[in-house]
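DATA SHEET
Item: assembly model
Revision: 1
Owner: S.N.
Input lines:
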Amino acid sequence: MATPYTPTVHGTGVRATIQRFGGHLAGMIMPNIGAFIAWGLITALFIPTGWIPNKTLAELVGPIIGTLLPVLIGYTGGRMVHAQRGAVVGAVATMGVVVGADVPMFLGAMVIGPLAALVLKYADRFTAERTRAGFEMLVDNFTAGIVGAVMAIAGVLAIGPVVEKVTEVAGDGVSWLVSHSLLPIASVIIEPAKVLFLNNAINHGVLGPLGVAESVKHGKSILFMLESNPGPGLGLLIAYLLFGPRSLRPSTPAAMIIHFFGGIHEIYFPYVLMKPRLILAVIAGGASGVLTFLVTGAGLVATPSPGSIFAYMAVTPKGGWFGVIAGIVIATAVSFAVAAALLGFGRANGDQADDIDGTSTEKHDPSSSETAAESVPATKEA
Amino acid sequence: MSSIQGKDVRKLVVACDAGMGSSVMLASTLRRQLKGTEVTVEHTPVNSIPGDADVIVCHAGLADRARASAPGVALVPFQVFIGDPAVTRVVDAIKSGGTIDG
């Protein structure tokens, strides 16, 4: 990770550790995406600047983002550590960071949920050996109750204020980057990290929680679009379709559909990993997309997940389509241009050796990944 | 490194980071290809691979985590999500017999 331009294709212990940590963060958010989307839809529709403003229904917005979503995150985080009991104390403890906070406490929930569950896990281990037969239920219920109550109190008094401060500082850092137009540089880190399968960790673990804080304040946030823009990947895949090794060309139309409409970005990572210099293309695409979002003042209401064009359209605030679409289109174009150049426009890099088994299968049948799957010959590119 | 005979496979697990995106996609493809066999195909996050998995299929970039999360289970890493030869070999081994080296 030290040198983002040359991602290590072979796994190292460090990389797996970072992935695993990031996976835990994302793992608390991703099972709850449905609730986020529900919130995003309600917000986009009913707030005063929404599509069909409605005062009564807009009252849903605050409690869902302020309480329900953090509690769900804390619940899920607790469950990851200590199953159902962990989930329950995680949810209770999360209430501690939620009350009195004036930012959505996603980060706080991601800290206190698993922490409370961990405390209970140790408490359970302690009591399990010392409980007499017949008293298990009493002891179990009261340990969970006491741990939950204590952690909730700790949340209000200690963890909440600290996390609020951290969220504030991070948010200030982001607005500083935005106001100095430095945000595109983030792509230099984000795009390489993404293809190393840190995509969920970055988007849901870091950018999402900060974005939500901003979205609540300003009605939209650009942070949701830094990692999830489907443009760079699409540009790369188009370049592969036209100029890539012939053996890979037949599979790219299906990959494009899955990537751009289905929002599963993982599908394009291998195309970068097998020719690491193409990371420059997605970085350039990502950065120009972010720059376009900045210049046009674009933002999304909630996190588009998965990063599909449909999800993007669904969480774009009223009147914000121009900037959002422009950023995606420009990112696609730039990424395509750079990738095409790096692929030597189909010549120059000796890929023609693959012609023998690739020429007969140049089919453009994007509807069926099965067809593509069966027709793709072995990948010879290293 | 462990290997298993294709005919002994009962549960094949496709793992990805969140267990919600790419693994679901590949799992549904494999489920279709393995229709008529007795193999169950599941998709899970790479951190929580079930203990009764016989074969794990996951992207090479996540192989380290899969190995740590389910040691001793045959692990087949692949490079591309569509039509990877390593995945095709697994399907062939299950359908027409053969060894899966993980």
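QC remark: Confidence is low (pLDDT under 50) at residues 1-11, 349-382 of chain A.
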